Amino acid sequence: MSNQSFTTHRNRILALAGVALLAVSLAVGTTLMVGDAGAAGIPQASQALPSYADIVAADKPAVVTITTKMKVQDTSADGQQQFEQQFGPNSPYDDFFRQFFGEENPFGHLPQQRRPTQTAMALGSGFIVSSDGMIVTNNHVIDGATDIRVTLDDGQQYKGTLVGHDAKNDLAVVKIDAGKPLPTLSWGDSDKLRAGDAVLAIGNPFGIGTTVTSGIVSARGRDLHNGPYDDFIQVDAAINHGNSGGPLVDADGKVVGINTAIYSPNGGNVGVGFAIPSDQAEAVVAKLETGAKIEHGYIGVEIQSVTKDVADAIGLSSESGALVAQVVDGSPAAKAGLKSGDVVTALGGKPIATPKDLSRLVADMAPGDKADITVWRHGKSLDLSIAAGKGSEEKQASVDNGNGAQPGSAMQSDSALGIGFAGLTPTMRDRFGIDPSVEGVIVTRVANDKPAADSGIQRGDIIVSINQQPVTSASDAMKVLKTAEKAGRKSVLLQVERGDTEMFVGVPFGNA
User: Fold this and answer.
1) Which of 42, 159, 348, 423 could cross-link with 407 by S-S, CB 3.0 to 4.6 Å?
2) What domains can be seen in the chain, in order of their start residue?
3) Is residue 131 among the annotated active site residues?
4) 3-class DSSP state for residue 64?
């Protein structure tokens, strides 16, 4: 399964709530403004505000600061270097982008210069779950660490040893030997949390010292598109860099979450924080404490959502399931008989409503586990059997170098969809650097006010199949489109190859 980055830039930033570089936090000069609590115009409370002092007094001694040393490298490179690394110098894709997109290489905006590897210190939080020194934190707090130091609430510092970690769940367990019993925190029941419940976040933001912030549960089940286990608790308690790995506790002082990420336009707290639910974390931590290696299942497919247009195109009655965009050659999915264009509707008897459902169920499988998998193919439901592989298996599809039939060269267009295409002639393949093994038709024109453009089809895309029927010439493509239109289909399903990415796009006839 493919994962996406945890950091998102769209006028806002999704930032990991830990791993604050100490050099950064120490270099920032902060002025603290002290106001007059008794200033005029501020009404006096008619009754005392509720106090969390007893909870803090009980829990704070079990919260720790984790400092790590790690090797860091600025991996940014000159845009042209990165372009050449991917496609080679003087790549035919240079002409491709210029002709079809009217621009130079698309990586030109990237920052320049590669810096040498350096050593940096990073900061996070954690909490003690057993008196012999087992500590829970986020995986991203210790990821890549060459040295781990744990500082207790009383200031005592100890060397930490990594017992186990699970990147998919973003959880890790670190052990210290303090030579004495240590205070601990107990797990709570995150399933009982409701929006509006009071919570406290405890940790060491920016290295200023153990800090407590209060708030409420803002929402449950948030998906940040970081991995198959995204099911975050959203809170408005202040969470900042350095809080990662610290506990989120309820009104009973029990751990109901692990503070992990923030959503912010500037990287600082704006009242939108996220925590891993304790009911998800507790079982994983129990395994990590024993030193057991956490292995997640892998089947080797790229999947996408089933939109209304896709459902209409393939005859599905609802917009549910996971559409298989690509099957990795030699993967468990390929061995089980899954094909590009299948819609997975159930795995192990459990229904699949979204791609996320499939990702989670597969990740929950251990390598070697077998399960029945139900797919929708060519208008019928089909049951197959699949055995999960290891999540670390190579996921790149191999290229079939067989010689296919030579596609026709004629250009044709469909006015209803607003799309023009042409066959892949040897000259065109040479000109645009298209591998001989790639079969399909190339999109030469997309009308701005037509359905193809609205659905995201772009000039230069390769259409591999239409309604799950392979097309190798422009005349083939036109035939399939006209047949679908005459049959009263509301939309068509295009299998599109764009660079190294394959996807399915449903394009409606109704908007023509």
Assistant:
1) 423
2) 1-24+52-73+116-294 (2.40.10.120), 297-390 (2.30.42.10), 411-508 (2.30.42.10)
3) no
4) strand
As a whole number of angstroms, the distance between CA 459 and CA 377 comes to 29
Distance CA 200, CA 321 (A): 38
Q: Cα–Cα–Cα angle for 192, 196, 201, nearest 5°? A: 80
Annotated active-site residue 36? The verdict is no
For residues 193 and 216, the answer to whether their CB atoms sit within 8 Å is no
> Angle CA(314)–CA(315)–CA(318) in degrees, nearest 5?
105
Report CA-CA distances (Å) from 223 to 120, 229, 281, 306.
31, 8, 16, 18
Whether the full predicted model's pTM is greater than 0.85, yes or no, is no
Burial of 283 (0-12, 13-18, 19+ CB in 10 A): exposed
The token pair at 224 is 């940040």
User: From CA 349, how far away is CA 386, in angstroms rounded?
Assistant: 13
Q: First vs last Cα of the chain: how many Å apart?
A: 36
Of 125, 140, 165, 476, which one is the catalytic site residue? Answer: 140
In whole angstroms, what is the distance from residue 476 CA to residue 466 CA?
A: 9
Write phi, then psi, for 454 (nearest 5 degrees): -60, -30
Tell me which of 218, 244, 264, 359 is the catalytic residue. Answer: 244
Instruction: Using alpha carbons, list the distances in angstroms from residue 91 to 110, 369, 475.
Output: 19, 44, 30
Q: Alpha-carbon dihedral of residues 258, 264, 268, 274, nearest 10 degrees? A: -10
Distance CA(205)–CA(202), nearest Å, equals: 9
According to the model, what pLDDT value does residue 341 have? Answer: 92
In this structure, the number of other CB atoms found within 10 A of the CB of residue 224 comes to: 17
Residue 250 annotated as catalytic: no
Question: What single letter denotes the amino acid at residue 1?
Answer: M
Which residues, in sequence order, are bridge partners of residue 222?
232
| Alpha-carbon gap, residue 224 to 112, rounded angstroms | 29
Instruction: Look at the chain and count its residues.
Output: 512
- Which residues lie closer than 8 Å to 469 by C-beta, 6 or more apart? 480
Give the sign of the dihedral formed by CA 462, CA 468, CA 470, CA 476. negative
Contact 213, 275 (CB under 8 A): no
Q: Give pLDDT, residue 238.
A: 93
The sign of the dihedral angle between the CA atoms of 483, 488, 492, 493 is negative
Q: Which of 170, 309, 312, 476 is catalytic?
A: 170
Question: Comparing C-alpha atoms, which of 166, 490, 161 is closest to residue 314?
Answer: 490
- Positions in the chain whose pLDDT score sits under 50: 1-13, 20-42, 45, 75-115, 392-409, 511-512
Cβ-proximal residues to 102 (8 Å cutoff; 6+ apart), any chain: none
3-state secondary structure of 94: helix
- Contact (Cβ atoms closer than 8 angstroms) between residue 421 and residue 474: yes
Residue 302 · residue 496 · CB < 8 Å: no
